[in-house]
Write a structure and sequence with these properties.
The protein has 322 residues and is of the alpha/beta class. It has a domain at 2-170 and 202-228 and 288-302: 3-Layer(aba) Sandwich (Rossmann fold), CATH 3.40.50. 40% of the residues lie in helices and 16% in strands. The chain has helices spanning 11-22, 55-62, 77-80, 85-99, 139-156, 180-186, 204-217, 233-244, 255-268, 279-282, 291-296, 304-317; strands at 2-6, 26-31, 45-49, 67-70, 105-109, 161-166, 168-170, 192-194, 198-203, 223-226, 230-232, 250-252. α1 (11-22) links the parallel β1 (2-6) and β2 (26-31). α8 packs across α12. It is globular, with a radius of gyration of 19 Å. The termini are far apart. The mean pLDDT is 95.
């Protein structure tokens, strides 16, 4: 197929482009002016300069395409809670849906955040479909929920739309430290501070495999969770310290105190060792059930240790940790 990939130069997107090229699909990437392209350098793909909110550029990129993998979205913590996140996520998808032919297969890369959070003992599945609801500090999750509603509306009208929901994704080359920054924080001496909560983690290559599988084998109107092992924050910290060969205490800070300290430091202009936008997500549980993706897409997800080891190796090589 001829496939348009938006966000094809990102951590996940670049892996998707590589897999599509390897499978002999003809790939076009829509890239913003001045976008870094080293992750896709040397790959046989076309580049169209433009923004997802620029309909003229998007139409040029869509020309002749039978499919779209829509990944374009702000990813840094400083961006995902910005006032314009909804415009980019929701209007960007609307532009793709409006610009593509009715027969075009569209894979929308959403997020596990659009399904959760979970109760402490719950594993999120693809089944719950709740109306979008704003939660304080979770503009990104709300925007993804609203975008998924657009997908479902399009599916109800006969459009060929598939949703994938990646969990917390780790991998080498995360130079914006979107998730790799979490590992740096856990390794700061003299002790590791965590809050109560938990996450589902996935290796970036497994997520990319899942996205391509959804493109090639996913059922229209369905959503698929792309995530691996579930760990609470203490378990994650123990594993990261063990991989890094570190010995230091792990202290769980009560969530109410974590939230209060973050608000107080922000109000007083005191620098925090983490981005304040992470707090509403970190203090909740995001455990997930990946059985549907394993069964229907034949995707396999590696264990947490195999997911984190290459990321930590890269952080050492890049000089972020000792």
């Amino acid at each position: 197929m001829r496939v348009l990939v938006t966000g094809g130069n990102g951590l996940i997107g670049s892996r998707v482009v590589r897999l599509l090229c390897r499978a002999d699909h003809e790939v076009t990437c829509l890239l913003r002016p001045g976008a870094r392209t080293e992750r896709i350098a040397g790959l046989c793909c076309n580049h169209v300069q433009g923004d997802i909110l620029d309909n003229a550029a998007l139409q040029r990129a869509l020309s002749g395409c039978q499919a779209v993998v829509h990944l374009a979205c702000p990813s840094a913590w400083s961006e995902i809670e910005s006032p314009g996140i909804g415009d980019v996520v929701v209007q960007g998808l609307r532009n793709v849906l409006d610009g593509a032919d009715d027969e075009t297969r569209i894979v929308f890369v959403s997020s596990l955040a659009a399904i959760g959070p979970a109760a402490r003992t719950e594993r999120l599945t693809e089944t719950p479909l709740r109306p979008p609801r704003k939660r304080p500090g979770m503009a990104y999750a709300y925007a993804k929920m609203c975008a998924e509603d657009l997908c479902r509306e399009a599916s109800a009208q006969g459009r060929d739309v598939v949703i994938v929901n990646p969990a917390e994704t780790y991998g080498p080359d995360d130079d914006r430290l979107v998730t790799a920054g979490n590992l740096i924080g856990l390794l700061q001496p003299p002790l590791t501070l965590v809050c109560s909560g938990g996450t589902c983690i996935a290796h970036v290559d497994d997520v990319a495999e899942g996205i391509v599988a959804a493109l090639e084998r996913g059922s229209a109107g369905e959503r698929y969770i792309l995530g691996g092992e579930n760990l609470n924050h203490v378990e994650l910290a123990r594993l990261v310290l063990a991989i890094a060969g570190r010995r230091q205490p792990i202290v769980t800070v009560p969530n109410f105190l974590f939230r209060w300290a973050t608000r107080a430091a922000t109000a007083l202009g005191i620098a925090l060792p983490y981005d304040r936008c992470i707090v509403p997500y970190a203090t909740r549980y995001w455990f997930a059930d990946n059985s549907k993706a394993r069964r229907d897409l034949n995707v396999r997800f590696r264990p947490a240790r195999e997911t984190l080891e290459p990321t930590l190796d890269w952080l050492k090589q890049a000089g972020y940790v000792q």
